[in-house]
Amino acid sequence: MTSPTVPAPAAGRPVVVWARLDAPLSRWLWLVKWILVIPHYIVLLFLWIAVFVVWLIALFAILFTERYPRPLFDFTLGVLRWTWRVGFYAYSALGTDRYPPFSLGPEPDYPARLDIAYPERLSRWLVLVKWWLLAIPHYLVIAFFIGGHRYSGGGLVMLLVIIAAVVLLFTEKYPQGIFDLVIGLDRWVLRVAAYTALMTDAYPPFRLDQGGEEPLEPLTPAPDSLWNPD
Fold first, then answer.
1. Phi, psi at residue 183, to the nearest 5°?
2. Cys staple from 227: which of 17, 144, 188, 222, with CB 3.0 to 4.6 Å?
3. CB neighbours (10 Å) of residue 144?
4. Domain segments of the chain: what residues?
5. Which helix (H) or strand (E) holds 116?
6. pLDDT band at residue 4, thresholds of 50, 70 and 90?
7. Model's pTM, two decimal places?
8. Interior/surface letters 17-35, b for 16+ CB within 10 angstroms, e for the rest
């Protein structure tokens, strides 16, 4: 299968989330995916503990050097990619029956992709407030989306995925409209995750970009005077 063309991260669009709805999908597999992904959940538990340690190191590195150390950035990106693939397979989307690889790499042939542009410079002062104070409005929104459940969804996402699963059970078809909305919600969550992981200074937009294709136009940046105090 030819690898899909996925837009690269760019200025104004530092986080790229792409997904393709696979077809056909099994009527029944979604009933047992929670069992099948247990090995991934176990590995991801330890990886996210490591991400927290990396986040602390990166915070001080940015504070003193204005740079996120590239190996640490790549590791965090790898964990986010892995988490996104598992969520797409399981209950953040149920968008594919292809079992996700145990991999921190980009996996260009998998039907769920995530990329984040590496920043050459980050604000040393913004790093102190963006992950808690500035992100509070987004936390309130995505708590409604996912119900606080990092790996397998919850809240509105879980409700929509369950509806899609029931439709799939009886019709063998995943409603495209539900898929587009679910991916839009997941995309919002991943943009906030990248921001609070200190991987970008670009404030996530309050914007629901639905569908598997990442919008090509740049996202509207926040005012420099507010989000980039340096």
1. -65, -35
2. 222
3. 12
4. 15-215
5. strand 112-116
6. low
7. 0.90
8. bbbbbbeebeeeebeebee
